[in-house]
């Protein structure tokens, strides 16, 4: 289905806001503040994961899960888990040893609000809590489904996924990478976790292989479109719009598709990938309209 035939934007905004409400309620419940000595750690964890954000990954989990009639509370738990994992990556990414950014979502980064050591520990604890939530019986009655969720997230987040991509990103600063090399870097660093979020909804729903593969392909192309458009925003948006320091990738000499294609061609490539993502949803008919709307939002957003 073409991008211009999806539901009107306000339907997507309303659905994303409802998802954010449900997932943040889960995050609040899953990260209670204790009256014990580690309270500062929990406060830093909560600051990192409850400090706003589009909840795009959680929305993917819950909207895909809805295609397979998954219980909303179970889906919200998995959405909360992926948001914890994502928040951990942002906390560590902002550290002086990584991208050294003082702003995140318009607020001081975790290491600026607290301190570097606390931020590192908060990121570590968010990562482990994410897996803990997936392994708990409340997430799914079927232990096989829980194991699949844990394994899929480990693959998306580890050395062959997000962390591996971050390493390549750091190593590539100031170097001239080919388009294929940048595509692989971005698929690992950003795309794999977005693809996991979509796949997780299908795992929760015990989707048949063909439908699970279609969802994974949607998530893959959506993740690629998202990162390329992030590169576009880094060049064109203000710090106020992005909620973080703008123009840092170009200043650091990072490898991006904008750098090798230019703004217009990079934007066009992101739009093409969003169209491809929509095409993978044909078998789901109108039930996947919000997922198609999300693809369009990915390449038209302001932050």
From TrEMBL:
It holds the Pfam family polyprenyl_synt. The keyword Oxidoreductase does not apply. CDD domains: Trans_IPPS_HT. Its cofactor is Mg(2+). One of its GO terms (molecular function) is prenyltransferase activity. Keywords: Isoprene biosynthesis, Magnesium, Metal-binding, Transferase. PROSITE patterns: POLYPRENYL_SYNTHASE_1, POLYPRENYL_SYNTHASE_2. One of its GO terms (biological process) is terpenoid biosynthetic process. It comes from the Bacteria. GO terms for cellular component: cytoplasm. PANTHER family: FARNESYL DIPHOSPHATE SYNTHASE. Belongs to the FPP/GGPP synthase family. NCBIfam families: FPPsyn. This is Geranylgeranyl pyrophosphate synthase. It comes from Acidocella aminolytica 101 = DSM 11237.
């Amino acid at each position: 289905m073409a991008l211009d035939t999806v539901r009107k934007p306000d339907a997507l905004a309303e659905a994303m806001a409802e998802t954010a409400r449900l997932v943040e309620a889960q995050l609040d419940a899953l990260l209670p503040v204790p009256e014990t000595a580690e309270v500062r750690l929990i406060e830093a964890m909560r600051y990192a994961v409850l400090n706003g954000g589009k909840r795009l990954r959680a929305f993917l989990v819950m909207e895909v899960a809805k295609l397979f009639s998954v219980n909303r509370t179970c889906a919200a738990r998995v959405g909360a888990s992926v948001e914890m994992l994502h928040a951990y990556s942002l906390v560590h990414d902002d550290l002086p040893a990584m991208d050294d950014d003082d702003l995140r979502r318009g607020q001081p980064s975790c290491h600026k609000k607290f301190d570097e050591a606390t931020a590192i520990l908060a990121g570590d604890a968010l990562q482990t809590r994410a897996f803990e939530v997936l392994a708990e019986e409340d997430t799914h009655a079927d232990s096989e489904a829980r194991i699949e969720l844990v394994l899929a997230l480990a693959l998306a987040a580890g050395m062959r996924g997000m962390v591996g991509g971050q390493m390549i990103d750091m190593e590539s600063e100031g170097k001239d990478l080919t388009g294929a090399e940048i595509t692989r870097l971005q698929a690992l660093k950003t795309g794999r976790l977005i693809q996991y979020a979509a796949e997780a909804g299908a795992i929760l729903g015990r989707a048949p292989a063909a439908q699970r593969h279609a969802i994974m392909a949607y998530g893959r192309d959506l993740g690629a479109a998202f990162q390329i458009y992030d590169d576009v925003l880094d060049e064109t948006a203000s710090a106020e719009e992005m909620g973080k320091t703008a123009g840092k990738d170009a200043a650091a000499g990072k490898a991006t598709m904008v750098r090798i294609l230019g703004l217009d061609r990079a934007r066009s490539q992101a739009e093409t990938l969003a169209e491809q993502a929509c095409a993978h949803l044909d078998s789901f008919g109108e039930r996947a309209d919000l997922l198609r709307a999300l693809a369009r939002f990915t390449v038209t957003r302001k932050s």
